[in-house]
Amino acid sequence: MKLAEVQKLFQDSVLGEEPSPSLLTLLRPPLRAENIAETFAVYHDGFRLRMAEYLSNDYPALREAMGDEAFGALVEAYAKARPSTFRNARWVGAGLPAFLRATPPLAEDRFLCGLAGLEAALAKSFDAADADELPIDALGRAREEDWPRLCFGFHPSVLTVAATLDAVAAYEAVQAGEPVAAARDGADVTLALWRRELDVNYRTLDDLEKIALTEAMAGAAFGNICASLAFAHPGRDEAEMAQIAGGFLARWFSDGMIVEAAPA
Question: Which residues touch 203 (CB under 8 Å, ≥6 apart)?
Answer without folding.
Answer: 191, 192
